[in-house]
């Protein structure tokens, strides 16, 4: 799939390549069970990449190569990392960051090469960097094709029993205890008033601290769900009222990525 730029040059396509959800986990899921064969075949033929982390991208490509030979050896793959500030402050100049211009990253696509955008886990540009690259591709006339694969937020929402017709992802909660408590109460009020499920995540080593804050500050009848290790053999998905969590239920560990959700 390609289109012509104003100069007449046929462009490549930007593929959004999902990655398995086992990044940072103690165990890995069999790749062929976590992603469709069509996604893996498409990824195997790409040689130009924009990624969150080059080391993680190469490790992922090595796993793909074991199933479908890569079109170019790992050392010949053209892999470009997004700037580190994009990881911390977002793609679009929010939270005090200067606006990031991703257009130069698409130079290979503008001369006809298909490209892949990949993050460390799940779908790029969803709860991960990359949306500015996608926007720049649209602006440059580069076709954008999302490939099928796991999206942790949607898997967690589906397994939560909470409202899947009205929901929001709110990213990370504040680290400061007082600010975090205030944010928890704000999200709970929104969830209870509008019936809008609130989804959020945390760096794994802070899981336990966030969990204790949720049990402390949420109302007893509010429903709280967690989903960790999704797609892995040891996956855990549980959903119950806060009062029930307070009586029994183990906190998430500090090693495995977790999606938290609250609602009614």
Automatic annotation (TrEMBL):
<keyword id="KW-0949">S-adenosyl-L-methionine</keyword>
<dbReference type="InterPro" id="IPR014776">
    <property type="entry name" value="4pyrrole_Mease_sub2"/>
</dbReference>
<dbReference type="InterPro" id="IPR035996">
    <property type="entry name" value="4pyrrol_Methylase_sf"/>
</dbReference>
<keyword id="KW-0698">rRNA processing</keyword>
<dbReference type="InterPro" id="IPR008189">
    <property type="entry name" value="rRNA_ssu_MeTfrase_I"/>
</dbReference>
<dbReference type="Pfam" id="PF00590">
    <property type="entry name" value="TP_methylase"/>
</dbReference>
<keyword id="KW-0808">Transferase</keyword>
<dbReference type="InterPro" id="IPR000878">
    <property type="entry name" value="4pyrrol_Mease"/>
</dbReference>
<protein>
    <submittedName>
        <fullName>SAM-dependent methyltransferase</fullName>
    </submittedName>
</protein>
<feature type="domain" description="Tetrapyrrole methylase">
    <location>
        <begin position="109"/>
        <end position="237"/>
    </location>
</feature>
<dbReference type="GO" id="GO:0032259">
    <property type="term" value="P:methylation"/>
</dbReference>
<keyword id="KW-0963">Cytoplasm</keyword>
<keyword id="KW-0489">Methyltransferase</keyword>
<dbReference type="InterPro" id="IPR014777">
    <property type="entry name" value="4pyrrole_Mease_sub1"/>
</dbReference>
<dbReference type="GO" id="GO:0008168">
    <property type="term" value="F:methyltransferase activity"/>
</dbReference>
<dbReference type="GO" id="GO:0006364">
    <property type="term" value="P:rRNA processing"/>
</dbReference>
């Amino acid at each position: 799939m390609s289109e012509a730029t104003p100069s007449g040059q046929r462009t490549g396509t930007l593929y959004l390549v999902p990655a398995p959800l086992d990044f940072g986990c103690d165990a890995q899921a069999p790749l062929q069970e976590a992603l469709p064969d069509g996604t893996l075949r498409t990824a195997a033929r790409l040689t130009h990449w924009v990624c969150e982390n080059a080391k993680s991208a190469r490790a992922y490509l090595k796993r793909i190569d074991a199933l479908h030979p890569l079109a170019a050896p790992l050392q010949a793959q053209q892999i470009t990392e997004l700037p580190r500030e994009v990881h911390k402050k977002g793609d679009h100049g929010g939270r005090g960051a200067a606006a990031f211009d991703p257009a130069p990253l698409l130079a290979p696509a503008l001369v006809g090469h298909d490209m892949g955008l990949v993050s460390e886990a799940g779908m790029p540009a969803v709860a991960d960097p990359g949306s500015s690259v996608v926007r720049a591709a649209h602006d440059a006339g580069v076709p954008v094709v999302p490939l099928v694969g796991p999206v942790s937020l949607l898997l967690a929402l589906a397994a939560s029993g909470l409202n899947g017709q009205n929901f929001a992802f709110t990213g990370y909660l504040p680290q400061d205890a007082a600010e975090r408590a205030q944010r928890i109460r704000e999200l709970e009020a929104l969830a209870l008033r509008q019936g809008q499920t609130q989804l959020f995540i945390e760096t794994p080593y802070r899981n336990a601290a966030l969990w204790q804050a949720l049990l402390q500050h949420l109302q007893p009848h509010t429903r709280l769900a967690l989903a960790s290790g999704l797609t892995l053999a040891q996956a855990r998905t549980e959903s119950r009222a806060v009062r029930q969590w307070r009586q029994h239920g183990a906190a998430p560990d500090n090693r495995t990525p977790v999606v938290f959700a609250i609602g009614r």
